[in-house]
Amino acid sequence: MSSSLAVGSVTAVLRRVLEESVKRHNLTTILGTAEVSSLPPDRLKIGKGEPNRINLFLLQVSENAAWRNADFPSRTGNGDRRTNPKLALDLFYLVTAYGAAEFHAEMLLGHAMFVFHETPVLTRQSIRDALASLPAGPAKTEMNAALRAALLEEQIEQIKIVPRVLTVEEISKIWGALQSQYRTTAAYQVSVVLIEAAQPARTALPVLTRGKPIPGTNRDEGVFVQANLLPPVPTLETLVPQTDPAMRMGEKLSLQGHHLGGTTVRAHFRLLRGDYEFTLTASAGASDASFEVQLPPGPDDRPAGVYEVTALVTQGGVVHSSNRLPVMLAPLITVGPVVAGVLTITCNPNVGPRQQVVLVVGTSELLPTAASFPIVVLPAPAHPVPTASLNFILPAAPHALPSGSQWVRLRVDGMESILIDRTKTPPEFVPSQAVVLP
Question: What structural domains and CATH numbers belong to the chain?
Fold first, then answer.
């Protein structure tokens, strides 16, 4: 595969092809002089006494769309190099002729276009020959050796030369950007140049079997085929809590999908904000389409929040993991009476020392900071260990809460206790989550 010097090798080969053709057709006898250069147009000296010249200028380089996504991702999740993805480039050239006398420029440009017309593909041998015949000299020996070391001829794709048509507007913009005097120009696209890093990568081992081995033979069962579009792996489609929209301690969670049957079926829960995980075994009555798990009554130290759930299905001694779906574990609260200006809330599961707790009373969201709102509910005292009981000091006048019955919600790390009973039509507030304020 080519190295990063391959772009320079392409220009050198194209220039050498033009030089050999000029020499072979003896244009110097007809025109007097006929040089080939590869410089930007603004660096060329134009004026009386200057030689006839064909100039090859690399105008633009862009990624090749067909090769852009040909390789697999080059890095693993740990950042290790998996492959050496190829940098595929298309090169766009301007071929311009400069004439020292009348008709010379037209003759040179026509000859250059004829050469590229007759050379639509740079073969591997022509690339080797062109790079091997580069002019030698004290200043060019190392550069020529580097161009040959780019190994342009070894890449899998051959170099193709395709003419491009430029509109008047494109030509005007190009020469305006070059800030040089306009000369009649032909444009060509040269593709594709494949550049690849020479770095060690990780290569997977070959596959030994494609299914279970067939006893008594050296063959295997092959690829598993089924007559529908369902993937033949455990897949979760829906999570249905016993209480909509979240699960709570002591309640059931139904996991529905397909290919969930096995000798052992479990549900693995992982907290998205943190490193807490736990696993529950499926209850009796599990089927290929669904199974249920029972959360312990608690209270325990598993935090409320959003969990991702994975089904772990054991089949033939092998544990298969399903996809992941989110589910919320909401706090289940018991509202105590107000005693001496203190409201006690019992929470299941326990509230950890680093969890953020907010109590919502009535229609106002009350934050535990006196500077945020005039009506404040503060936890007292702070709990250094997980606890199921939280005491909130009610603010006194003039910021006292309205008296009478108020609905109460506890928010733990953004997860609120469920206040609405959706099993009834129309839905109702849960009567046990109300407090009577004096």
Answer: 6-195 (no CATH), 235-329 (2.60.40.10), 332-437 (2.60.40)
